[in-house]
Inverse folding.
């Protein structure tokens, strides 16, 4: 059955309203379902309006922001402007920290996912003494709060002169993120059909070939969704960056935005644009890759 | 060119190359070994980077922190249980503990129940995928940005001034006085917790919704024919069937509740009695630089997650048996 499209639906509604009994039944049904729709609309409003308000405010003139709410811009003259963005990019080192966020996030993601894919294959398709013990350790580590590690790791970075550098944050994110990723990829790679690996073994393919020609290509959907997940997690991280590079010039956007809150107090004008810049990339990544993300999951489910 | 960009590009290209080289080189070295030893050693080569990283950054620091929690401010002298005595007697840490319990109960409860209810409601309308996308939208938004979004929702001006904060403007149109949401002790913790709920409900909803699709509609129809109303269907049929999924979601949400830091740090920095364990630990660490006390706060956090650790490991073992 094909899903009725919008205009088609409207036509059917019109046809229905011309015939008496159907109209009454339809109306009654609609009235009964009104509380349902109303609840969902209220929920959607609560989830949509706050973000919308911030985005609209970020495009309003700085002087007007303290005079009236963001909703006044919905009615003409809205007087939208890029003033906040110009100011924040010029004065607050936000552009620099945007680049920092990229320089932190991309390498951290690549390092983690590469190591996790290797380990995921090892745990899934190799037998060795201590495998189950190691893996249970990994499962347990997923729950341990990173707060437990901050002091010793901070000392370690201070002793090696790494504190405040990109390398420190890459390493820290890798150390903290791997447990979950190894767990996820071990399950994804371990879920591939055994026969494929066995026949490759018979054909004389070694582990490197089985990993590179079979395991990796066949788990691309899982790896891709993991990449998105890790990217968002690192880009949005505050605690790790704040602890290991608090005032370093290398600090990412999340730290700079947070420091804007405390230093400006009521400085809305910078805050709105900075926050929108911080969330623009993850939103764009998520919205553009969401379809691929979902397809990867569903196709895996149907075939598996 | 900026040397930092060179480093980053070097890392993006270099690290996978290094790892590939590591595998190929160790394969070469393994060739030299007798066949039996070779196949015994090889797996360790593959899992060593991951296990090594986890050991250096998680296992050893965790053990070290436990030791540090029995040491003084600069980790020089053994002080016994002093830091724990401080934790359980100081009003600041006790307040943080109380607030973390509030988060644990209300954040977890509302996220899980809210996720379930929204999943069930949107299941009955045509615009389900749109409605779900809207509730899911905060997922890619950082807690920092979400906090700023809500800072503007909660903004307060003295009565008589123009209210530019959405919430105070709304209650103002009904004739109520503006409320300083983030300052007043009756509203500030609920206000912070609500920001958390707003960011996390989409996650719970999507997972619960996926397993809701697997519940047969005949079963629900049969319950309705037997005279169950919608609330009973939800409580007595849907919820028990989804219980395994709900447990998984709840464990994740409980961990999030215990670790919550960003929202509190950005919105109030723990002022006006809104501190939680994680933000209390950060201020002990970065503010007063007391490693012993900060470590003790961390250990309390670890103790709180140990039941979850046990649940996770047990569930993993059950899954393994079914494989």
């Amino acid at each position: 059955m094909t899903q009725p499209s919008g205009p088609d639906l409207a036509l059917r509604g019109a046809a229905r309203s011309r015939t008496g009994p159907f109209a009454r039944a339809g109306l009654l049904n609609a009235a009964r379902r009104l509380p349902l729709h109303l609840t969902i609309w209220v929920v959607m409003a609560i989830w949509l309006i706050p973000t919308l308000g911030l985005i609209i405010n970020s495009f309003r003139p700085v002087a007007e922001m303290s005079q009236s709410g963001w909703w006044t811009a919905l009615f003409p003259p809205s007087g939208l402007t890029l003033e906040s963005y110009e100011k924040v990019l010029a004065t607050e080192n936000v552009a620099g920290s945007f680049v920092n966020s990229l320089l932190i996030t991309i390498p951290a993601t690549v390092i983690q996912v590469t190591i996790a894919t290797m380990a995921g294959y090892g745990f899934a398709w190799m037998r060795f003494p201590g495998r189950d013990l190691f893996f249970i350790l990994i499962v347990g580590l997923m729950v341990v709060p990173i707060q437990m590690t901050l002091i010793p790791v901070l000392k370690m970075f201070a002793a090696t002169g790494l504190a405040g550098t990109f390398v420190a944050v890459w390493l820290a994110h890798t150390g903290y993120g791997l447990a979950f990723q190894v767990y996820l990829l071990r399950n994804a790679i371990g879920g591939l059909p055994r026969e494929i690996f066995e026949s490759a073994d018979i054909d004389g393919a070694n582990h490197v070939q089985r990993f590179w020609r079979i395991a990796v290509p066949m788990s691309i959907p899982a790896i891709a969704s993991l990449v998105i997940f890790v990217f968002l997690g690192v880009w949005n991280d505050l605690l790790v960056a704040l602890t290991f590079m608090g005032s370093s010039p290398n600090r990412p956007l999340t730290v700079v935005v947070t420091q804007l809150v405390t230093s400006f107090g009521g400085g809305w004008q910078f805050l709105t644009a900075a926050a929108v810049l911080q969330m623009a990339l993850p939103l764009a990544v998520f919205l553009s890759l969401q379809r691929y993300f979902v397809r990867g999951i569903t196709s895996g489910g149907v075939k598996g | 060119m900026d040397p930092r960009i060179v480093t980053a590009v070097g890392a993006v290209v270099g690290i996978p190359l290094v790892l590939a080289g590591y595998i190929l080189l160790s394969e070469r070295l393994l060739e030299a070994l007798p066949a039996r030893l070779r196949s015994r050693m090889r797996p360790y080569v593959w899992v060593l980077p991951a296990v090594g990283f986890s050991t250096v950054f998680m296992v050893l620091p965790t053990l070290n922190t436990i030791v540090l929690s029995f040491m003084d401010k600069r980790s020089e002298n053994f002080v016994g249980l002093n830091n724990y005595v401080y934790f359980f007697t100081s009003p600041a840490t006790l307040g943080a503990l109380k607030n973390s319990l509030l988060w644990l109960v209300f954040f977890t409860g509302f996220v899980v129940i809210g996720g379930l209810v929204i999943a069930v409601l949107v299941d009955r309308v045509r615009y389900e995928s749109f409605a779900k996308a809207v509730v899911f939208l905060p997922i890619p938004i950082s807690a920092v940005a979400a906090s700023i979004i809500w800072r503007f929702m909660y903004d307060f001006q003295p009565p008589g001034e123009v209210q530019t904060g959405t919430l105070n403007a709304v209650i103002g149109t009904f004739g109520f006085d503006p409320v300083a949401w983030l300052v007043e002790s009756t509203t500030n913790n609920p206000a912070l917790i609500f920001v958390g709920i707003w960011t996390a409900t989409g996650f719970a909803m999507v997972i619960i919704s996926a397993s809701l699709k697997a519940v047969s509609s005949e079963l629900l129809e049969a319950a309705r024919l037997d005279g169950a109303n919608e609330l009973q269907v939800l409580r007595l049929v849907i919820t028990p069937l989804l219980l395994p999924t709900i447990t998984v979601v709840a464990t994740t949400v409980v961990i999030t509740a215990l670790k919550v830091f960003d929202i509190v740090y950005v919105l109030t920095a723990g002022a006006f009695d809104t501190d939680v364990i994680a933000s209390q630990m950060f201020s002990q660490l970065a503010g007063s630089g007391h490693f012993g006390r900060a470590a003790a706060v961390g250990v309390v956090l670890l103790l709180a997650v140990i039941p979850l650790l046990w649940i996770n490991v047990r569930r993993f073992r059950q899954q393994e048996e079914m494989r």
Q: What stands out?
A: Residues 1-19, 296-304 of chain A have pLDDT under 50 and may be disordered. Chain A touches chain B through 105 residues (CB under 8 Å).
